[in-house]
Give the backbone structure.
Amino acid sequence: MPPTLQVEVGQYSAAGRKTVNQDAMALRVAEGFEQAVKGTVLAVADGISSSPRSQVASEITVTTLLEDYYATPQAWTVKTSVRRVIESLNSWLFAQNRHARTSDLNQGLVCTLTALVLKGHHAHIFHVGDSRVSQVLGTSLEPLTDDHISYISEDRFLLARAVGAQAQIEIDYLCIDIRPGDVFLLTTDGVHEHITGVDVAEAMTLANLDLACRQLAEKALAAGSPDNVTAQVVRVVGLPDEMPKVADHVLPVPNDLVPGSSIDGLEILKELHHSSRSRILLARQADGVSVVIKMPGLETGQDPDYLQRFLFEEWVARKVNSNHLVKAAAERTRSASYVALEYVEGTTLRQWMLDHPQPELETVRKIIEQLVSGLRALHRLEVIHQDLRPENVMIDSHGAVRIIDLGSVAVPGLEEAMPGLLGTMPGTFQYTAPEYLSGEPITWRADQYSLGVIAYEMLTGELPYGSQVAKVRTRADQKRLRYRDADNSDNGIPEWLNFALATACHRDSYRRYDALSEFVADLRKPSSRFKPRSKRPLMESHPVKVWQAIAFLQFLIILWLLMADSMM
């Protein structure tokens, strides 16, 4: 199987019976790693015939879509990347129409858009208007999009959605699995309203897919099409069977490095950590800057797939920019497989917690705020850290905080290309969100849970659920988790602060904060949602005692009934 998706493509567009071609099309077949993380893109747009400027909108839309999509972060999913590009395009076109004071959108920069992105084992479809994506199944042409039109009469209709028509745009999205041999056809209405599945099947017998698209356009014109004619086709030749690679080939693991030796211009100073899975060394560059070298251990160094995944830590470090995340060291030509990261001086948060068993609340706030800054840099790229814990956080002598381990991150944009590439569940149950164990969907809120647990432990010296989380296996187990209130007479933690901690590390991810900034704010002042226990419903503030009282009352009623029955 090929290392990346293999496709054949073709396209054709013409004015047809009109003097101006208001259709536009664009496609790009990326190569190598870019093909793996971004895929192949096809797009068609159809301008509104009543507008003399709509061909400009069509051309801008398809060309900008391709240019900007491939410029979006490689860590983003296809859905996020394309949606943001289309939304930005729509805002720009709408603003141009407003600036030109075009009250009649039929005279403005408005067009339809249909885009297809093939990546990994999936086809992603984005659609606005009445252009179309169809799948060719033998002699059948099966539409995968719905036409966004509103009928005025039997033969008259208006376009219900279009790019540039409104300030906000509604985009249809569909993701389907693909297989070798699948054929997808993108067309404007000048083509698909005048051809049949038999026409398409006949055209697909041609070896040249550009000629196949031209034949379909000509058949549409021969059948009476009065419009512009545009067609794009893509055939899936092969699916990737390997993970996308950050290196063309895996270099050997340097197992002979000891203090005093050197590699690629780096002088080894000392060993920082050694286990069967990994080895970490402190080294010095020629300019005197210290760096950390990480390499697989004896247990993992013989696995080529693991070595590829291992190298992604440095790849992620180069993609993310934050003063509170570890950075990659300067790039260099390498003779062996290792990850080179900046050396962060200081102590781990675990050691800091041991040294400061009763920290000031303001100090805890400042640490959490810096961790939030680092996490938000990851989350903006749709990257989930997954292994946030005190051992993976460093604090220097000035109180600056930095997350130093990116080895367990989940990158949805790469997962699309090859599921299971990254993001295996971390093994530190004390800080692992319960949804990892119950099989629930994983989102950035899993990192929020870990952050909440760390804040809770810094303030109380304990864990919010004790050892209960490690026992979770199902959704029912997750629901049985019982949070231990952080506020008591000994630690002086206010009730409103306990509410913030309880929300951040709630057992149900959907009941955590909608943004990390909300958690930061609630650590400084009571949330508007906070209700003191004295003002809460009794069932909410003391659920166990309520049920105990109900059970006791039921017992008394049953006892009274039995006594009454025996006296009769």
Observations:
- The CA atoms of residues 125 and 516 lie 31 Å apart.
- The chain has three domains: 6-238, 262-342, 347-530.
- The longest strand covers residues 229-238.
